[in-house]
């Protein structure tokens, strides 16, 4: 075809890297299989999962349940804990041997490290933190959409002159497909080709992070977020009280974090966390693009802002025009009264 680089017809298939920790898959892997399913169908190719680790064959069965047609499995004790060198070696070897046209990886801490290293080694392009993926069917190109220029515009990026086309997507950006029990398919087992003595790094100890700033807002079912409209750090206590009544957590906009009113671990948006809760309450947040891409897929969005033209109202299911400092305490009190009425005496 005109404009089609020579040799790219040999690259076929959509691959999803299944991230796991001690045999437990990260949910973003299944979310990407859901996104990958549509891409593969549009291209008329197989959707494949890549499972790396030690004693992780059960994840191959799970991958079939979430939509994979085929699984590439490298099961080796050297892969028990993530280290860049052996994981990169495994991914590079598989890609060079089987030549997928698209590779999707979750934009977690592990995924960011592996995706960047793999793209560099394979000399191909990588679009990080995508919020949308689609196919240009005429040219068989992956359209990778993500915010750019500080979140002020949405850019669609193409990898026209290299393969595979690589993209990372943050957790909770894509919906998780339903699990289909009973699905199965071929498992292609490949050797790692490295032994422990060849690995230059050793893991001596794993210390989990802990602390207020590391609360996982990405998996919360209720998020109450505050922006610069909250006025000061002490006013975030109003949000904490509302979140406590609702059984949720407190988030923040980039502006609020930059002002020192909340830790970065609570930031929602392109440069923070992506959330997909059942309920998202935005208090004093204007709604810049970089914030919207981190929360716009919430099941229900309530926005409170003094500015009736604030962009946040464009994605809100319910908008309240007013001062969040006045509305939030009233809302909290009403919810307390409602909860008291339904509690049996």
> Which range does the strand content fall in?
15-25%
Order of helices and strands: EEEHEHEHEHEEEEEEEHEHEHEEH
> How many extended strands?
17
For the biggest β-sheet, the strand order reads 7-11-6-1-4-5-12
Q: Kindly, what is the distance between the CA atoms of the first and last residues, rounded to a whole number of angstroms?
A: 75 Å
Which fold name is given in CATH as the topology of the largest domain? Rossmann fold
Compute the number of structural domains.
Answer: 2
Any idea what the CATH superfamily of the largest domain is called? HUPs
Q: What is the second-level CATH architecture of the largest domain?
A: 3-Layer(aba) Sandwich
| Mean model confidence by pLDDT | 92
How would you describe this protein?
By secondary structure, the chain is α/β, with parallel strands linked by helices. The protein folds into 2 domains: 8-198, HUPs (Rossmann fold, 3-Layer(aba) Sandwich); 212-342, Rossmann fold (3-Layer(aba) Sandwich). The protein has 8 helices and 17 strands. The chain has helices at residues 27-43, 57-65, 84-98, 109-122, 236-246, 254-258, 289-292, 324-342, and strands at 14-18, 20-21, 24-25, 47-53, 70-75, 102-106, 126-127, 132-136, 141-148, 153-157, 165-169, 187-189, 222-226, 249-252, 279-283, 300-305, 318-321. The strands form 4 sheets. It has a 7-stranded parallel beta sheet, sandwiched between helices. A hairpin with a 4-residue loop joins β9 (141-148) and β10 (153-157). The longest helix has 19 residues, at 324-342. The N and C termini lie far apart (75 Å). Mean pLDDT is 92; it is low at 1-6.
């Amino acid at each position: 075809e005109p404009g089609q680089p020579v040799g790219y017809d040999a690259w076929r298939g959509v691959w999803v890297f299944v991230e796991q920790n001690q045999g437990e898959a990260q949910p973003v892997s299944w979310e990407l299989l859901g996104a990958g399913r549509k891409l593969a169908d549009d291209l008329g190719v197989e959707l494949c999962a890549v499972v790396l680790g030690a004693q992780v064959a059960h994840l191959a069965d799970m991958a079939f349940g979430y939509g994979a047609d085929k699984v590439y499995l490298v099961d080796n004790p050297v892969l028990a804990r993530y280290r860049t060198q052996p994981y990169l070696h495994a991914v590079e070897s598989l890609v060079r041997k089987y030549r997928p046209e698209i590779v999707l990886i979750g934009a977690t801490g592990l995924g960011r490290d592996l995706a960047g290293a793999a793209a560099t080694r394979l000399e191909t392009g990588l679009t990080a933190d995508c919020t949308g993926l689609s196919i240009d069917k005429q040219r068989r190109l992956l359209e990778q959409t993500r915010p750019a220029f500080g979140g002020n515009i949405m850019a669609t990026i193409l990898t026209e002159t290299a393969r595979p086309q690589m993209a990372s997507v943050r957790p909770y950006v894509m919906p998780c497909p339903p699990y289909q029990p009973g699905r199965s398919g071929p498992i292609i087992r490949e050797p790692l080709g490295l032994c422990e003595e060849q690995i230059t790094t050793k893991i001596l100890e794993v210390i989990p992070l802990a602390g207020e700033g590391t609360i996982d807002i990405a998996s919360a079912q209720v998020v109450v977020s505050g922006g610069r409209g909250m006025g000061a750090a002490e006013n975030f206590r109003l949000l904490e009280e509302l979140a406590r009544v609702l059984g949720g957590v407190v988030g923040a906009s980039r502006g609020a974090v930059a002002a020192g009113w909340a830790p970065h671990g609570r930031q929602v948006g392109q440069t923070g966390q992506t959330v997909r809760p059942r309920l998202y309450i935005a208090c004093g947040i204007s709604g810049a693009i970089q914030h919207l891409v981190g929360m716009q897929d919430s099941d229900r969005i309530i926005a409170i802002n003094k500015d009736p033209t604030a962009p946040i109202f464009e994605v809100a299911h319910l908008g309240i025009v007013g001062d969040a400092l006045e509305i939030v305490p009233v809302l909290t009190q009403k919810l307390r009264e409602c909860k008291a009425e339904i509690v049996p005496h």
